Amino acid sequence: MSDLSGRQRLDTPRGSRLRLTPQFDVEAAGQIGESFARFLGTGRYLAIQTVFVVVWILLNMFALSLRWDPYPFILLNLAFSTQAAYAAPLILLAQNRQENRDRVSLEEDRRRAEQTKADTEYLARELAALRLAVGEVATRDYLRRELEELRDLINQQLPAKGGSGKKKRANQPAETSDAPNSAELAETDSGIAATDD
User: Fold this and answer.
1) At a CB cut-off of 8 Å and minimum separation 6, what does 10 contact?
2) Residue 97's closest CA among 38, 40, 43, 39?
3) DSSP of 117-155, one letter per residue?
4) What pTM value is reported for the model?
5) Where are the domains positioned within the chain?
6) Burial tier of 73 (Cβ tally within 10 Å: 0-12, 13-18, 19+)
7) Is 94 exposed, middle or buried (0-12, 13-18, 19+ CB in 10 A)?
8) Which helix (H) or strand (E) holds 169?
9) 32, 61, 133, 169: which has the fewest C-beta neighbours closer than 10 Å?
10) Exposure of 37 by Cβ count < 10 A (0-12 exposed, 13-18 middle, 19+ buried)?
């Protein structure tokens, strides 16, 4: 839907045109007040005000024809009072707006910190799971050691069963064929012949 550039939408009934209170943009008023309060705290403002006060006092003391505020300087005092009456609320307004920005920023930082903590905890759990999984995987050294133990067991059992009696070299793998050797066949043949008699 197209933006009506600040006007209300056409599908919304228009409210009463008669308004008893003036309507103003709170955000715009806050920004103006904040910029004015910032200006009050600058060295430029202090210099301008100092020059203004010095000129005011000099004109009222030495220019007899231009004297509009004699010695107790009541008008100058009134101007300072009016300035203070407006400056204090503007400064408070600027502080409140800064406080709101700080609160929003703090909430965002807190949310970001919680997300970072959750991400860190998740990564720590994943690393722990990977370490456990890697710990359960057979390593090359473990497999080599197990195969050497099996080879030694096979080499020890072959001569005991009446094998050739030759010792294999350490670097040759043991034969692991499923076919029975000739000594085992001779034993089974003699066992069958004895049961037939």
Assistant:
1) 4
2) 38
3) HHHHHHHHHHHHHHHHHHHHSPPHHHHHHHHHHHHHHHH
4) 0.46
5) 26-109
6) middle
7) buried
8) none
9) 169
10) buried
